[in-house]
Amino acid sequence: MNASHRFSPPARRLAPSLLHVCLFAIAGIVASSPAVAQPAKVKVGFMLPYTGTYAALGTAITNGFKLAVEENGGKLGGREIEYFTVDDESDPAKAPDNANKIIKRDKVDVLIGTVHSGVALAMAKVARDNNTLLIIPNAGAGDITGPLCAPNIFRTSFSNWQPGYAMGKVAAEQTKKTAVTFTWKYAAGEESVGGFKEAFEAGGGKVVKELFLPFPQVEFQSYLTEIAALKPDVVYAFFAGGGAVKFVKDYAAAGLKNSVQLVGPGFLTDGTLDAQGDAAQGMLTTLHYADGLNNPKNRAFRAAYSKTFTGEPDVYAVGGYDAAQLLNAGLTAVKGDVTKRSELVAAMEAAKIDSPRGAFTLSKSHNPVQDVYLRRVEGRENKIVGVAARALADPSRGCKL
Ligand code: BEZ
Question: Is 188 in the pocket of ligand 1 (CB under 6 A)?
Fold first, then answer.
C-alpha cells in the first residue's frame, strides 16, 4: 500500500468538512468585517437651544445642517452621519456638563454649537481640553476667535463685532449725531454695541447712554420710557429670537417707531418678521445675510429649505448649512478619516465656502471674512439695500494661531 492509498480515505472524509469550515469562515468575515461593510458613521453632536427664547434659532441651525447633508447624499466626506442632540437651554451654567456629556458619553467626532455666546465660551473651553473639533454655527463671542482661538475651533457665522461695526458706520454716514444702545447684558450684546460704538464714534457720532437688562428678560417698558426722555437720533439694539419679537413690538407700541429711529444687527428682524408684523416695517439692520440675495446658491438654498421644512430659512439656517459645508470640505480632504486631524483642519482653513450669503473664506483665527449687508424690512422680507462693509474681518485681537 503506498502512502496515497493509505491516507486517501481519511483525506476524502476530511475534504468536505475543511471546505465547509473555510466557507463558513469566509462568510463570517464578509458579514462582520468593517472593511467590507459600511464604514462607521461620523458622529455629529448638536449642542443647541431647543427651548427658551433662542429655541427657533437652534431648530433653524439643525435644519440647515441636515439640509446640506441630504444634498450631499446623506454623507459628508463620503461617510454617513449619526446625530446626537442636547438642548443647551441657552444656559451657560449648564454648558460644561452638557458639552462633557456629549463628548465623553456619546463620543462625538465633531461638536456643532451653539447660539448663545456665554454657552459657546464654555463649550470652547471643553472642546479645547478634549481636543474635540468644534464648529460654531452662530454664537459670535469675540474671544473664541480672539485670545481663545484654537486649531480645533471654527465659526461659520460672524463675530458679534462684525454687524455692530457695520451699523455704526452706516449710522455715522447717515449723519446721526447721538445714539442710545440697548441690549441684554452678556457677551453678545456687549460686543455688538461695542462694535457699533467704535464705528459710530469714529465717524463723528456719540453714544450718550448704554442700557442693559439681564438675559433673557423682556420687561422693556422702563427702558423705553428712558429712551423717550433721552430723545437720541438713533437707538441701536441687540436682541434676538423671542426677545427680538417682543422688543420690536413694544418699541412700536410705546410710540417710538416714528420719533426715534430703531436700528440693530440683523438678529433684530431675522426669523421674526411673521410675528413682528407692522412693528418691523421699514427697519434698517446690518447682517452677513439678506433674504433676497440674488445668487444661484441662495435661490437654490431657499427653494430647498422651504420645500423640506415649514417656513422660510433665515440667517441661523445659513450658519447651520455652512457648518456642514465646512465640515464636508475637511472630511473630503481626508476621505472621511477623522483621525487625520491636521490635514482635516488645513482643508477647513483653506476652504472657500459657497454660501447662500455669497462665497466666504475664513480668517487665520477661523472666523468668516464676509460682506455685511444693509437691509430694510419690506413686508415679510429683509431686503438688501447695499453692502455696509465689504470683506469685513473681525479684528481677532489676541489670537495666536
Ligand atoms: C450670541 O449669543 O452670540 C447670539 C445670539 C443670538 C443671535 C446672535 C448672537
Answer: yes
